[in-house]
Amino acid sequence: MNIAQKVILISGASRGIGRATALLLAQNGAHVVATARNADELASLETEAATLGTGSLIGLAGDVASEADMGAVVQTALDRFGRIDVVINNAGFGIFKPVDELTVDEWDAVMATNVKGTFVLTKAALPTLKAQGSGHVVVVASDVAKRTFAGGALYTASKYAQEAFMGALRKEVRPHGIKVTGVYSGLVDSHFHAKGHGHETSKHYLQVEDMAESMLFIVSRPPHVVIDEFMVHPLTQEY
């Protein structure tokens, strides 16, 4: 799994899957440009990454739905390393209510991060990837990009939108030598859940480290290999 010297951008990197992934990639020799809203958590991530492996990690605070912020993230990567090899769209959150209890502000907030954010960061990096004739766009979606459940109209709509975005993007960029991978996870023990990380009810869920190892596998495939879709669940979850 050689990713030494690869330049990897990852959003939603301050906590959970994003943080674990950023650390594992840096530990394995990648140059990681990590972004999230929380500057203090990114500073802590930088400090921890500095003790690991041969790679590097820089944290840049910003809103994934902001074209200016994500443009700055991409430009920083180019200024520092001269290229971009992988973009991991990981930022996301959910609000779970019946449709008639959702507010328009809640709808807009989830869509801004999950859908608009994926578009904005990907778009910012695409000119560089096309000019290189290589690159890899990863979108951390969810298994609910392919199924629905009561109370999940907003979240599942955002994940179905990511799925459609990836499908069209894949057709556009493959002729340019760019890979697109959708990651569809089941239940993960993280801060994402209402009961929080480490709760007794989630002890059999996937761990954030499981997801980080999955991401490492995906982005370390040889140039001629693309994993279009990666579905992963805890054994205890019905699928």
Automatic annotation (TrEMBL):
One cellular component term from this protein's GO annotations in UniProt: membrane
GO molecular function, one term: oxidoreductase activity, acting on the CH-OH group of donors, NAD or NADP as acceptor
Coiled-coil residue spans: none
InterPro entries with a match to the protein in the record: KR_dom (IPR057326), NAD(P)-bd_dom_sf (IPR036291), SDR_fam (IPR002347)
Domain of life: Bacteria
Domain Ketoreductase: 6-190
Protein keywords: Oxidoreductase
PANTHER family hit by this protein: DEHYDROGENASE/REDUCTASE SDR FAMILY MEMBER 7B (PTHR44196), DEHYDROGENASE_REDUCTASE SDR FAMILY MEMBER 7B (PTHR44196:SF1)
Family: Belongs to the short-chain dehydrogenases/reductases (SDR) family.
Stated name of the protein: Short-chain dehydrogenase/reductase SDR
